[in-house]
């Protein structure tokens, strides 16, 4: 760094700007390759172009210097600087001032070298941005922690990092296109909320100086999207950020992107079909197939119809005993003890059943699997099951043991919804920090009448994990990390 700073100072002393406000650039490297990619070895075009890029390779010889530059899309091109073309001073400056990592502009004729490499034979060159820090060397790749903390370096040196960012953008664009094609409209709902709701989670709390009011970063957009359906926007969705003040691990981040959608005249069966079509559509359009290869080498088939099981049925299968929503709490505790699952005294029987499911079943759900029919106790915004008392019409979608999304037949009865909120209040009084508060304005909206609807939420970060097999810190461009 001391040497590079010295070069910066030398440039300034000679009246050369190491960080000019603009440089010559007439075409991108990709455009140049698309236009002249078939040029034969030793051929010249007579075409002069100005190109830019970050220097990733340098070989300086006596009268002829070679360099490779790369632009942001990953396209690379060879530069050639000869004494005869650029002159003694310019060639000497190149040798003395240019380091790997610098961004340069070079103007010259487009040719193919004797070895057939498409190149620009420079007439002149300009420093576009002097790099004061050296790039990591190729034989010492960045570790995961450094990749996450210094994603800008990761993007420079690692093609996979650039592909991850582009794939994420492509997946989100495809999701929007598919939903728009299906008659959904995209809306934006508040991230700062007077009252958090739409999920059972611990919120982040902040304060508005203007209103002298404590506010919450939203944990879900659900209650506002449902207000839209009450108002006649029958098919709505939102892709945006949620914030949950919870743990961080390989599949959880305190800040994450979520797709939520709601459509009138639907239920949890119709949103299961919608979710499957979205995942498969994104996989086909972005990766070319519903058969995806994960980072660890696993081939995962996302195509066709997906397996469907029930929560209580899957627990029963593992335990070898029938477990239902009516199984006494004490019996569930005894099973938990047998399988070494610690029981929080705050948990009710429904929550304990879910914990048993996660402990016993989820790791075996590799292929996409819908897990249907959850306890109503843990689903305060979900309609009661049409056939089985005590259950709610809810499913969770699992891929490789990870929950990818969830879907519901939504509760639309305002009287029953108020009772559910009251039950949540009792849980809060018992110490449940994730219990949902009573939302009077949402209840008022329901009292104007909401048609039967199906709702779905799917994590964008987790969708990328399901499509690529990467951890959540690789699918999020800049995940939250503790300060160094």
Main beta-sheet annotation: 8 strands, mixed
Give the strand tally.
Answer: 18
Indicate the overall shape: elongated
Question: How large a portion of the residues is in β-strands, by DSSP E?
Answer: 25-35%
C-alpha termini separation? 21 Å
Share of residues in helices: 25-40%
Low-pLDDT residue intervals, each spanning 5 or more residues:
none
Taking strands numbered 1, 2, ... along the chain, how are they ordered across the largest sheet?
A: 6-10-11-18-17-16-15-14
State Rg: 29 Å
Explain what the structure shows.
There is one protein chain. With 484 residues, this protein is of the alpha+beta class. 35% of the residues lie in helices and 26% in strands. The protein has 16 helices and 18 strands. It has an 8-stranded mixed beta sheet, sandwiched between helices. The chain has a 5-stranded mixed β-barrel with strand order 1-2-3-5-4. A 3-stranded antiparallel beta sheet has the order 7-9-8, with no helix packed on it. Strand 8 and strand 9 form a beta hairpin. Helix 7 crosses helix 9, helix 10 packs across helix 12 and helix 11 packs parallel to helix 12. The longest helix is centred in the middle third of the chain and has 23 residues. It is elongated. The two termini are 21 Å apart. 36% of the residues are buried.
């Amino acid at each position: 760094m001391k040497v590079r700073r010295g070069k910066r100072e030398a440039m300034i002393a000679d009246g050369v700007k190491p960080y000019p406000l603009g440089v010559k650039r007439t075409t991108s490297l990709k455009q140049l390759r698309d236009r002249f990619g078939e040029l034969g070895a030793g051929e010249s075009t007579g075409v002069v172009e100005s190109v830019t890029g970050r220097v990733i390779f340098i070989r300086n010889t006596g009268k002829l210097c070679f360099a490779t530059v790369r632009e942001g899309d990953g396209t690379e091109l060879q530069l050639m600087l000869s004494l005869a073309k650029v002159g003694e001073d310019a060639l000497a400056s190149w040798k003395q001032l240019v380091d790997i990592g610098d961004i340069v502009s070079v103007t010259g004729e487009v040719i193919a070298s004797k070895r057939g490499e498409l190149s620009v034979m420079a007439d002149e060159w300009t420093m576009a941005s002097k790099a004061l820090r050296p790039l990591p060397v190729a034989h010492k790749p960045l570790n995961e922690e450094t990749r996450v903390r210094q994603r800008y370096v990761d993007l420079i040196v690692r093609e996979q990092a650039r592909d991850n960012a582009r794939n994420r953008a492509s997946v989100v664009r495809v999701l929007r296109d598919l939903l728009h094609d299906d008659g959904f409209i995209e809306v934006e709902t508040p991230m700062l909320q007077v009252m958090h709701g739409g999920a059972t989670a611990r919120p982040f709390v902040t304060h508005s100086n203007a209103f002298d009011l404590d506010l919450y970063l939203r944990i879900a957009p659900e209650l506002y999207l449902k207000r839209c359906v009450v108002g006649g926007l029958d098919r709505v969705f939102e892709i945006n950020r949620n914030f949950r003040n919870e743990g961080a691990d390989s599949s959880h981040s305190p800040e994450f992107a979520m797709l939520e959608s709601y459509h009138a005249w639907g239920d949890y069966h119709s949103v299961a079909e919608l979710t499957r079509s979205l995942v498969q559509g994104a996989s086909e359009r972005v990766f070319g197939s519903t058969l995806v290869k994960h980072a660890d080498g696993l081939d995962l088939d996302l195509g066709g119809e997906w397996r469907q099981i029930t929560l209580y049925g899957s627990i029963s299968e593992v335990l070898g005993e029938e477990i239902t929503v009516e199984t006494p709490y004490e019996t569930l505790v005894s099973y938990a003890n047998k399988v070494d699952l610690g029981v929080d005294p705050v948990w009710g029987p429904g929550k304990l059943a879910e914990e048993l499911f996660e402990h016993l079943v989820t790791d075996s759900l590799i292929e996409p699997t819908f897990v249907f029919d959850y306890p109503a106790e843990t689903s305060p915004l979900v309609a009661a099951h049409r056939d089985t008392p005590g259950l709610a019409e809810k499913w969770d979608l699992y891929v490789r043991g990870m929950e990818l999304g969830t879907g519901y037949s939504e509760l639309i009865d305002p009287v029953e919804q108020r009772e559910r909120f009251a039950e949540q209040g009792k849980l809060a009084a018992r110490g449940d920090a994730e219990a949902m508060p009573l939302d009077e304005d949402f209840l008022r909206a329901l009292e104007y009448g909401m048609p039967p609807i199906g709702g779905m939420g799917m994590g964008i970060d987790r969708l990328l994990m399901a499509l690529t097999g990467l951890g959540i810190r690789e699918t999020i461009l800049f995940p939250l990390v503790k300060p160094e």
